[in-house]
Design a protein that fits this description.
By secondary structure, the chain is of the alpha/beta class. 31% of the residues lie in helices and 16% in strands. The chain contains 7 helices and 6 strands. The strands form 2 sheets. Strands 1-6-5-2 form a 4-stranded parallel beta sheet. A two-stranded antiparallel sheet has the order 3-4. α3 packs across α4. The N and C termini lie close together (9 Å).
């Protein structure tokens, strides 16, 4: 879409002259925590957002691990070159830890583990949630909410995977924790970029309308 944030591709506000600003106010708070963000599709209520909510938090929907894992595989299998064109070769991928302490599993890690092959190496246990610190608020960069293992990430280019980008605060804060421990670059990858269809500020309404009129295309947010 034309009037969207140059980084997260979400809605933007307008300046005093009525022109859309280039970067949304949330992404401006994240600085250089992430080099780029790749996602497979936009997410609206009743679509991907609903699927992920059921997969993560409702019993009886464990079978949704198949479409979740397949969408993640399709993103990385088809668009790893788009990602590496920005950062160079990725050393390994890892996951943003869940902010839900009661959840009995890590949703994206579990989905990845069910698939037979991957185009990239995965590392587990290199980043985790610091439960002594509250989760980041919307648009807040809080690297102290996560810990990272310096010996595993120092000098590495890391692909940081999460299910969906809503405000981006969790992924950006996790990426900042990785960089604090010496990661040379961190790229974000999510299944979707969530849009709030009931918000009517800035370019939100136009962006949602444009997304609803589109069909599926085999492009990511970078190559699009």
């Amino acid at each position: 879409p034309g009037q969207c944030c140059s980084f997260c591709h979400g809605a933007m506000s307008h300046d005093v002259l009525g022109s859309a600003v280039r970067t949304c106010h949330q992404c401006r708070h994240y600085g250089n925590a992430l080099e780029s963000l790749a996602f497979a599709t936009y997410s609206l209520d009743g679509g991907l957002e609903s699927l992920l909510h059921r997969y993560k938090d409702w019993r009886g929907y464990e079978w949704l691990i198949a479409p979740v894992g397949s969408l993640l595989f399709r993103l990385l299998q088809g668009h790893l070159p788009c990602i590496e064109a920005i950062t160079g070769p990725i050393d390994f991928a890892t996951f943003v830890p869940s902010n839900n302490r009661k959840r009995e599993f890590e949703p994206m890690r579990s989905a990845a583990a069910r698939l037979l092959s991957w185009p990239i190496a995965w590392r587990h246990g290199v980043v985790g949630r610091n439960w002594a610190v509250d989760r980041p608020g919307r648009g807040e960069l809080k690297p102290s909410a996560y810990w990272a293992t310096g010996s595993a990430v120092a000098g590495r280019t890391v692909l940081l995977v999460d299910d969906v980008w809503t405000s981006g605060s969790s992924m950006a804060s996790c990426a900042a924790a990785l960089k604090t421990e010496g990661a040379s670059a961190v790229v974000g990858a999510t299944l979707g970029r969530h849009l709030n269809s009931d918000r009517h500020w800035g370019t939100s309404a136009d962006l949602v309308a444009e997304v609803r009129n589109r069909g599926w295309s085999d492009t990511c947010s970078l190559c699009a």
